[in-house]
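Record passed on underneath.
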Amino acid sequence: MIARRDLAARVASVEDLTRTCFRLELTCREPVVAVPGQFGMLRCGAELDPLLRRAFSFAGVRQVGEGWVVEMHIKEVGKGTTLLRRLAPGARTSLLAPLGNGFTLAGLSGGRLALVAGGIGLPPVLFAAEVLAAEGRPFDLFFGAARASELYEIDRLAAATAAVGGELGLCTDDGSRGEAGVVTGALERRLAGGREIGRVLACGPDPMLRALGRLATARGLDAELSLEEPMACGVGVCLGCVVELEDGSLVPSCKEGPVFPVRRLGERWRS
């Protein structure tokens, strides 16, 4: 794996996915080799305000010709993300990447993989799904959001799961599309129905991840959670994203994670 570098990047495209979320694609001349679950720290503009970069998981990384394309899905929530949404194709920025540790896609001894995403937690899960589909490795994928209008990239998810004979389960809190209720409930129903799951990989809001942590602990499931802790530096220096582990130690999520096995996390994520 290539060590992190501060990469010069240009905006290839900005495309709306929902009312609040958008896809940002960057092109880099230098190689960007990353695995699903890793992320990058992106400069929001040419000015010093905002000073800090923003952390975004990769939704995909691919080589195109002699360059590399990095795909991110971003929710507009403040000044930095608003500036990113307004970037024009060709605009210059910089990306510190790849950072952190990704999902474990290999070494599954039994059952099948279950990928679980909630809301804007979809990017690393989509990345994992497309990597697994390209390798012909079976998985099921469950994607939930508050309402139908907040579900996105459904065609890509359907294509990836269909390529390996997997199930795509969509859920909405209000029942406007797919199964009604939270996405963790869909996974729990499959398990109760006898579905054999060997490992769960998930990213989403904290309540969803805690629910998955409890489910994995109760059923003895191998599960990995991609945590969405706020990050300022992305390299473990500022200690603004510390996470408590099972042994009581505190570690920076950006460096030790953002993907953690549930068994390694503290009580907050398992009860």
User: Anything to note?
Assistant: Residues 5-99 form a domain with the Elongation Factor Tu (Ef-tu); domain 3 fold (CATH 2.40.30.10). The longest helix spans residues 122-135. The two ends are 35 Å apart (CA to CA). The chain has a mean pLDDT of 95.
